[in-house]
Every structure is written in structure tokens, then in C-alpha cells.
Design brief:
The protein is about 80% helix and about 0% strand. The protein is mainly alpha-helical and about 190 residues long. Helix 1 runs parallel beside helix 6 and helix 4 runs antiparallel to helix 7. The radius of gyration is 16 Å and the shape is globular.
Length: about 190
């Protein structure tokens, strides 16, 4: 796999994390540079590790994992997205009353939810005989960069549109989850 192919793959796999990262600043009053790096780093790490993990276990477990990976991503993204939508329709809510998405279980759930498709992609690499390290490095780096940019962009949009952006962000998460589910079901 050449560098151009790895970049295209990195771009496509990072778009889920980018979409989610746009929504993250909506529930953090004053997003710090440290939080941007932490979230982008988590998304980048998971996007790099999941294809590596998929590549490692592809020998026999891939058929089992492929039967449920899309459901995990769909459920995680739908739960977070549904919660955002409900909070966005509440009157007078400046920031949703949910765990801070820049740490703990919420960050873990978002990181896993956006990287399930990377696991499946990595499983597909198994028979290609490629050098996996450069590919996962490109995927992780691109995801980090797009996620950081998404958080900065999301903060600007959030200031202007406020609670309406929670609904939009939640809908984006639902659409991403549904896209993953339908692609795997009809593949």
C-alpha cells in the first residue's frame, strides 16, 4: 500500500471522529488546548490501534467480529447522539448535564464508537501483506489533525448557534451510527 492510499484511507476513517469532535465543544464551557489535544489524541490513538488490532485478530476471529462490530458502533453513537438531541431541546440548558466528553467513560465511548470501522478496515488488511505500522501511523495522525480542527471549528459554531448545535451534533452522531450499521448490513 503506497502513501497516497494510506492518506485516502486515513482521511476516510477520520471523518467519523471529525464529525464527533465538532460536537464535543458544545458541552464544555471553556475548552482548553489541553482538552483539544486529549480528545484528538484519544481519537487518533483509537483510530490507529483499532486497525492494528483488526489486522492482528483477522486470522480467525474476523468473521465473528464482523457480525457485531457495526451494532456496537451504532449503539454507542446513538446513545450519545440521542442524549445530545434531548438536551438540545431542553429550555435554558447552557451545557448538557452529562459526563464531560473530554474525559473518562464518555471520551472512551466516543473513541470506541468512532473507531469500530477502523477495526473492520484493519481486518481487511490481513491478506494484503502490507506493512501495517506506516498505515496506522498515517490513520492516527490524520485523525488527530482532523479531530483537533473539528473541535476548534465546533467551538466557533457552538457560540453562535448554541443549543441548536447540540441537536445538529446529536443528529450527526445518529447518522454516522446508522451509516456504519447499514454499510455493514448491506455489504
Amino acid at each position: 500500500m503506497d502513501l497516497a492510499t494510506a492518506v485516502v484511507l486515513g482521511f476516510s476513517l477520520s471523518m467519523d471522529a471529525f464529525a464527533v469532535s465538532i460536537a464535543v465543544p458544545l458541552c464544555v464551557a471553556a475548552l482548553s488546548a489541553r482538552q483539544v489535544v486529549k480528545v484528538a489524541g484519544s481519537f487518533g490513538l483509537f483510530q490507529a490501534v483499532m486497525p492494528l488490532f483488526g489486522w492482528i485478530v483477522a486470522s480467525g476471529v474476523v468473521s465473528i467480529a464482523r457480525s457485531w462490530d457495526h451494532w456496537v458502533a451504532f449503539l454507542l453513537l446513538s446513545a450519545v447522539g440521542g442524549h445530545m438531541i434531548l438536551e438540545g431541546f431542553k429550555d435554558g440548558t447552557d451545557c448538557p448535564r452529562w459526563p464531560d466528553p473530554t474525559r473518562g467513560k464518555a471520551l472512551f465511548a466516543l473513541s470506541v464508537g468512532t473507531s469500530i470501522d477502523a477495526f473492520a478496515a484493519g481486518a481487511g488488511f490481513a491478506g494484503l501483506g502490507l506493512q501495517i505500522a506506516p498505515v496506522v501511523a498515517v490513520i492516527g495522525s490524520m485523525t488527530f489533525a482532523f479531530s483537533a480542527a473539528g473541535m476548534v471549528f465546533g467551538r466557533r459554531i457552538g457560540r453562535r448557534f448554541g443549543e441548536r448545535m447540540l441537536v445538529v451534533g446529536g443528529l450527526l452522531l445518529l447518522v454516522i451510527g446508522l451509516k456504519i450499521l447499514l454499510e455493514d448490513i448491506f455489504a
